[in-house]
Amino acid sequence: MSDRPVLVFDSGIGGLSVLREARVIMPGRRFVYVADDAGFPYGAWEEGKLSARIVAVFSDLIARHDPAMTLIACNTASTIVLSALRAAYPAMPFVGTVPAIKPAAERTRSGLVSVLATPGTVKRQYTRDLIRDYADKVHVRLVGSENLAGLAETYMRRGFVDEAAVAAEIAPCFVDHEGQQTDIVVLACTHFPFLVNRMRKMAPWPVDWIDPAEAIARRALAIAETLEGGEALPDARDQVVFTSGAPEYALQRLMHGFGLTVA
Ligand code: DGL
Fold first, then answer.
1. Which whole-number Å values give the CA distances from 114 to 12, 97, 160, 191, 209, in the listed order?
2. Fewer Cβ within 10 Å of end Cβ, the chain: N or C?
C-alpha cells in the first residue's frame, strides 16, 4: 500500500494553523510538516531570491519524503513561487494559500475590508490582481505588518505576547470613513490565526477575522481524492523537518505538542 505523505510547507509555525484543519478533514493521511526556519521571516525577502530558495529546498524535500502532494501553507511564498514550483516539479500537485479577498468582498456589509499580511504579500502583483478581479466594488486596505509573524512565533514558543505591539500592528486595519467602519479583516498570513484572540481583544471595534485554513484544507482534500493510494499505515507518525537542522528547544517542544516527530 502506498503511504506517501502530504507535505505542508511554511517559513515557520504558521502552517500549523493549516495542518490542524488538514488533519481533521484528512484523518487517513500521513503528514510531513516543513518549517523553513533557516529562511524565516519570508516577509522581507526579495521576490526572485525567495522563489529560487524555495524551489531549491523542494528538490531535497521531494527526494527524501516522496510526497503525494504539497500544501504551501504560506501566503508570502504562494503569491510568488507556485508557478515556479509547478514548472520545476510537474508531477507534484501543489495547493497554495492566497489572501481570502474574494470571500471578504462577498461578505462585507460596510464595503470596507482590510487585508493583514506580511510586507511581501502586500507588495505582490498577485494580491493586487485578486483585488482587481474580485473586489472592485469594495474598498480594500492592504496592511503589511513587519512584526506580527515574529510575535506569533514568540507566542507559540514561549506563551508570551506583547499586546501593545499587537494593537499597534493591527491599528491600520481599522478604517472609519463617512459613517462606515471596516467590518472584515482577512488574515493573509498563516501565522496570524494564532494571535486572533489577542487581536480581538485589542481591536478598536469588533470585526470578522477571516482565517482561510479550512478552505485551504478542503481544496487539498479535493485534490487528495483524485490521487491513488496515500492512506497512512497504522503505525505511521507525522513528522517535522526544520531546514535549519538545529531548531531551538522551545520550537521542538511545540512541534511535539502538535504530534510531530523530528524527521
Ligand atoms: N506564514 C507566512 C505567510 O503566510 C509568512 C511568515 C513570514 O515568514 O514572515 O505569509
1. 24, 17, 26, 17, 10
2. N
Q: How far is the CA of 249 from the centre of ligand 1 (A)?
A: 21
Mutate which of 53, 75, 115 for ligand 1? The one with the most ligand atoms within 8 Å of its CB, which is 75
Q: Does residue 226 fall inside a structural domain? A: yes
What distance in angstroms lies between residue 192's CA and the mean position of ligand 1's atoms?
A: 9
CATH number at residue 254: 3.40.50.1860
**Catalytic positions:** 74, 189
Mark whether 205 and 220 lie in a shared domain: no
Q: Is residue 44 part of a domain?
A: yes
Q: What distance in angstroms lies between residue 24's CA and the mean position of ligand 1's atoms?
A: 22
- pLDDT in 10s for each residue of the chain, 263 residues: 468 999 999 999 999 999 999 999 999 899 999 999 999 999 889 999 999 999 999 999 999 999 999 999 999 999 999 999 999 999 999 999 999 999 999 999 999 999 999 999 999 999 999 999 999 999 999 999 999 999 999 999 999 999 999 999 999 999 999 999 999 999 999 999 999 999 999 999 999 999 999 999 999 999 999 987 767 777 788 999 999 998 999 999 999 999 999 98
For residue 222, list its beta bridge partners. none
Query: Count of domains in the chain?
Result: 2
- Domain span at 54: 6-97+214-262
250 plus 223 within the same structural domain: yes
Q: How far apart are CA 67 and CA 103, in angstroms?
A: 30
Residue 195: DSSP 8-state: G
Q: Is the CB of 96 under 6 A from ligand 1?
A: no
C-alpha–C-alpha distance, residues 105 and 184, integer Å = 9
User: Are 89 and 177 found together in one domain?
Assistant: no
Q: Is the Cβ atom of 212 under 6 angstroms away from ligand 1?
A: no
